[in-house]
Structures are given as structure tokens and as C-alpha cells.
Amino acid sequence: MSRAGCRNGIVLANKPRGWTSFDVVSWARRRLDNVKVGHAGTLDPDATGLLVLLVGQATKLSQYLMLDEKEYLARVRLGIRTDTDDATGDVVAEQAPPPLSEADIEETLTSFRGTIRQVPPAVSALKQGGRRWYRLAREGAVFERVPRDVTIHELELRSYESPFIGLRVVCSKGTYIRALARDIGETLGCGGCLVDLVRIRVGRFELREAIEAEEGTTGEELSRRLLPLEDLLPDWPKAMISDEAQVRVGHGAAISSHDLRSVSRPLVRGDRVRLFSPAGKLVSIAEAVSAHADIMEQADEGPEGLELQPLRLLIDTQECT
Questions:
Q1: Do 107 and 158 sit in the same domain of this protein?
Q2: Looking at the predicted structure, is the pLDDT value of residue 302 above 70?
Q3: Domain encompassing residue 269
Q4: Lower Cβ count inside 10 Å, N or C end of the chain?
Q5: Is 44 a catalytic residue?
Q6: Bridge partners (DSSP) listed for residue 263
Q7: DSSP secondary structure letters along 46-79
Q8: What is the total count of domains within the chain?
Q9: Is pLDDT of 63 > 80?
Q10: 2 inside domain
Q11: Is 4 part of any domain?
Q12: What is the DSSP track for 10-56?
């Protein structure tokens, strides 16, 4: 969707090294007439790669888009431990890595696949007592870093030339690749830190589709790269609703199965659903909250009683021409 007057959707941006994620948000906001812009998952300043920018109404979907799995290319330096778990921190210990074969590293990586317990880096944006960890760490405060469950869906050894390991990682929300690098190094007996990180995918969006975040980019160029709301959350079922139901949804009211013209697949209670207007516009996301278990593909054939409660209204109040 490349219409300059439309300010709802997402932009895929390639974040350069040295920029914060907020720098990229500000870069986009200045070029899109100061419309509201957010993102679906931060990147450290020293990392590069895909940042999914949420524009206008799309900012309301942030918490759902952040759940998407992410894919990275990472480079780990064995034998060095830092206070940030990456190359930007102060070195706290250094030693020569032991002689290792690719088979040794592959064996170690096996223990990091699947759901693991991970201690986040001390220098991170997590909060304790209302304060960011990185502020506490810089002040020398002692605080507990509680391990969290994260899932490493794929962990591939792409290269090894001592002391550097190249990895491809597909992981869940909340995974710190810095911490993964640290823990792999510890398991190999020499410590390690992250020296390079590129995010190449978020959900179904890939880095190769992204526009470069650079000062020379114009608002018109950015607008042409704006993807519509209708492209978001494609794995969620899609329901077409009537004109009357759209009015009720606009007031935050639940709608019943009789208000649906069609559903892309059978639903069960607890499903998150995308609600589309008769004109094909995404107007809301909703949750199935009734006690009945199923609704058939054609709404009027399903059991009565299923209700869809709006979670976020996405009524487009701006004209897109």
C-alpha cells in the first residue's frame, strides 16, 4: 500500500549499527508527518537488521506482533567475558579458548535447542522495582536476575574459525542472543561474548524486504513501502462481518455468529480473530468468548452462542486515496 495519504500499517526498516530502535522510530515519524510510530521488538544499538515499524492504527497491535518468532545471524567471540555479554562492554575476563572441533561445538549447541532457562544480561531494559536493569548495573547495584523460559526453535552452526563461531538462531520473544553467546561460551569452558548480530526475520517478514533507515530517505519513499493493516497477523482466522456488526464493533460491543458472513476456518473459544468489513478493511481484532466450541466456515451454519469480543479497534479514521 503506497498511498501517501495513508498512515496506517507497517514499514520494514533495516536498522544501521549505532542507531537505537527509538532513533529509527523517530526517523520514520519525521518522514510520515509525525504520525504515531512504534515497533514490534527492539534491537540493541550495536545490532543491525530488521525492525518492524508500526504506523498509526498498527501500534495497537504491538503486543500481538511481538509474539512472532525471530531469526538472527550471530557471531560469537570465545574466550572473552564482558559485563554486557557483548563487545560493547568492559572485558571482565579473558583466556585462550581450548582446542575445539566443529563436532565439540555441535554437541554443545544441542543443549541449547528447545525451551531453556536463560538469565538476561544485567545491562538490559528489563525492570526491577520500576527501574531499568541497565541503570541499576551502571550504579553498581546488586539485584537478582531471575531466569526466564525462552525457546530456541533452531540453532545452526554456520561457521567456526577459532575464536569465532557463526550461528543462525530462530527463537521466541524475550530471547537475548547476548545471553545465548555468553552461555555457549561458558559451556565450552572459556566464556564468550556476542560481537555481531543481524536480525533477518520477524515472523513472516524478512530483512530483504526492508528499506534502509538512512537520512536521505524521503517521506514519499517511506510511504510507498507502507504495508497495509490487512497484511498483519496472517495466521489468525479471518471473519467477514456485516455492516450492522461493524457499527457495533466500532462501539466495542461483542457480536454473535449471526453477524458473520464467513469465517476462514472453524473457530473455538479463545481464538483470536481478525474482523473485516464488507469492503475488506481490517476493523478490529477480537476473541471468541462464548461457551460453544465450534463455528463452521459459513457463519449461519454454525452453532448459536459464539460471541466475538473486540480487543482492539482499528477503524481507519484517515482517508487513504
A1: yes
A2: no
A3: 236-313
A4: C
A5: yes
A6: 239
A7: T-EEEEEEEEGGGGGGHHHHTTS-EEEEEEEEET
A8: 3
A9: yes
A10: no
A11: no
A12: EEEEEEPTT--HHHHHHHHHHHTTT--EEESS---TT-EEEEEEEEG
